[in-house]
Amino acid sequence: MLLTSPGSVTTRRQRVRTLLRGGRVVDPGSGFDGVADVLLDGGKVAAVGANLDAPDATGIDVTGLVVGPGFVDLHSHVHSVAGQRLQAMDGVTTALDLEAGLMPVERAYAEAAAAGRPLHYGFSASWGAARAQVLAGIEPDANIGSGLAVLGNPRWQRSSSKPELGAWLSLLDTEIAKGALGIGVLMGYAPATDPGEFLAVARLAAKAGVPTYTHVRELVEVDPAIPVDGSVEIAVAAGETGAAMHHCHVNSTSGHHVDRVLATLDNARREGSRVTVEAYPYGAGSTAVGAAFIEPDRLRLKGLRPSSVVILETGERVRDEARLREIRKADPGAPCLLEFLDEHDPRDRGLLHQALAFPDAIVASDAMPVYWKDGRAESTEWPLPPGGTTHPRTSGTFAKTLRLMVRETGTWTWLEAFRRCSYLPSRLLDDVAPAARGKGHLGAGADADVVVLDPDRITDTATYTDPTRPSHGIRHLFVAGVRVIGDGQLDPEALPGQPLRGEPK
């Protein structure tokens, strides 16, 4: 076990052997789906097979339950024990902030290690922070709160001069050398920038052998004056440079145009481009209210209204454009919800389903930090104290996806579900972080990051009005062989998370 105290670094690791007996083992790495035992030895899977003999191991009967590799979340802005505990209850064993990233990345890793984490963690190099440092003189501090505040600052959202471009590209290159897992590009927050800059980022990524993770700029259907269509831009850049380019939350950036966007990405993949895509099962996103795409005129272009915006910390639904402008000016970093699809409308629900069902689409949460109305920045209490708020995708993305795609519609088999939630996200990281090769599968030698779930009960419980309610149906969760959840109960003393770092060529 790990001996820890809340808020402190892990002090000692003791080797643990655990035998999971008689479960339905689903391994997307080998394609195996059948009844077997799984032996965990320390931080690795020692064996998978029938009637394994391990008298020195702690035995757990998992008959009737599904055993699979823990979910790997490529898109989590949760940098706290509290938020990661909610994600653990959703079946996640590795939570990575790759769309936005943090800078400086060495500080991000050091602070996470010092505080301790229930889940494995990692960060990309932050395109937004690098540009803000060069273009606006804003010194990054590896903090998600500061990052949200910067999103509404127009000084970094302009195009760069040639010297400025070189300066922030150099910062990104340095971050990659220090262990960043690629480059996170918040293009949607600076949508009028010169498309040549995006190509330069793609060339840097291709040269360094790392992926990019992009929140694309607006679509041409939404804003005909946009310099380049967001989905076309990522496809073209991947084709021209050979970079591995990941399209973040295609559901939220595409909205009612998801048919066309998915066709664009599919054509790019058929032509050999290294384009991947992710989605989550919600019709509302979450960001800072100062984001460029929440400006009233841009909302109108999307067919949305100020009332589509809800301020997270107060619950205020913005009444009109004047009030929205007032909030954006006073507190541009205030976290908010943006409703882009109506989950009660069958057509809109169909668009969400279509994004998840797209071939090889990866499930990723875009999990957001947990905020408390009393101003606290973190809590090590479990269950979480009352008054916390976040987006329900922090608590329920994976359980909701399994409920929708496996239990209710039968769109995916359990093998396909684990391929989307565990295997495919891990394989995206194989080149930049060879340690990822041990994740996303259950063969002997794989990392002992394992989820055991009840296939009949797995479901989300978080709602927009009560977003910190944990998912149901995760019976056991092992991170590096340490049981973080046992018999459905989270162990608040377990902080076994380890860094997943890039290894530059």
Automatic annotation (TrEMBL):
Transmembrane segments: none annotated. InterPro entries: D-aminoacylase_insert_dom_sf, Metal-dep_hydrolase_composite, Metal_Hydrolase, Metallo-dep_Hydrolases_sf. Coiled coil: none annotated. One of its GO terms (molecular function) is hydrolase activity, acting on carbon-nitrogen (but not peptide) bonds, in linear amides. SUPFAM superfamilies: Composite domain of metallo-dependent hydrolases (SSF51338), Metallo-dependent hydrolases (SSF51556). This is D-glutamate deacylase. It comes from Amycolatopsis eburnea. The lineage of its organism: Bacteria, Bacillati, Actinomycetota, Actinomycetes, Pseudonocardiales.
